[in-house]
Amino acid sequence: MVVGSLFFSVMSVFAKLAGERLPTMELVLARVVVTLVMSWWALKSLGIDPWGNNKRLLVWRGLAGFGGLSCYFYAVTHLPLADATVIQFCNPMIAALIAVFALHEPLRMIDVAATALSMVGVVLVAQPSFLFTAGTPLDPVAVVIGVFGAIFSAIAYVIIRRLGATEHHLVVVFYFPLITGPASLPILAVEGLAMPSGWEWLLLLGIGVTAQLGQIEITKGYKLETAGRASSMTYLQIVLAYTWGVLIFSEFPNALSVLGAVLVVLGVLSVARRQP
């Protein structure tokens, strides 16, 4: 889980560096091309039908994943790395609330409290100017897009949970790049394609490779450890994001931002550790 978290944090660094000149959809396309090739190869090697059973829900999973990844990459390139990561990590808490209505899972008071706690944390991270006159407010548009990214990711997780009863997990993984790749092309046509330079080609390749390696390691981690203990290790990404932000991008968080990150982690951990 630690190695997987490290790979995902490095992916975010590559995305932020590449996003200084390249459009967001170009980063998204680089991310999913590697996943598409490796997922297709894995399915064929195991003799699994790649098209699945519940195709409609698989397509919706792909669309939700596309929305989540696109918004996250936009937030990463327009916000401090640590702040974008903290906002994205609200998705497990949002997924727990969506599951109440979509999967008829029970709503506990601790889920409501965790939601409130995490929302307070996001406000402390964003520090909007109408509340924090002396703070360092972030770009409000990028914050809103980051929150939508967390919501889309949460929807994707709830759909994945529903698909678990009918689909092989590799099929669910395969549909993410299968839908995201074509969905990104119309937006990329509007944004305009920027031809990568030599350094940027390496960054784009790094985005795809580190994302795939991170997914592999975290999947292995969930097989070896209980879900609650394993998921708690993924919050190392927030610590790593703060570290990369300081070392690479000279992004020094203030005390309120750090406090907000702690509140988000506490809120989401209380949801992630609940017993089935």
Structural shape = globular
Q: Which sheet architecture does the biggest sheet show?
A: none
User: Helix fraction?
Assistant: over 70%
Low-confidence stretches: none
Structure class: mainly alpha
* Euclidean distance between termini CA atoms: 21 Å
For the record, the count of structural domains works out to 1
Task: Average the pLDDT over all residues and give the rounded result.
Answer: 86
**Tally of strands:** 0
Number of helices in the DSSP assignment: 12
Summarize it.
By secondary structure, this protein is mostly helical.
Description:
This protein has 276 residues and is mainly alpha-helical. It has helices spanning 2-18, 24-46, 55-78, 81-88, 91-102, 109-126, 140-163, 169-191, 198-224, 227-233, 236-249, 255-272. The chain has twelve helices and no strands. The protein is globular. The mean pLDDT is 86.
Give the helices and strands, then pairings.
Layout: H1 2-18, H2 24-46, H3 55-78, H4 81-88, H5 91-102, H6 109-126, H7 140-163, H8 169-191, H9 198-224, H10 227-233, H11 236-249, H12 255-272
Helix pairs in contact: 1-3, 1-9, 1-11, 2-3, 2-8, 2-9, 3-4, 3-7, 3-8, 4-11, 5-6, 5-7, 5-12, 6-12
Descriptive keywords:
single chain, 276 residues, mainly alpha, 12 helices, globular
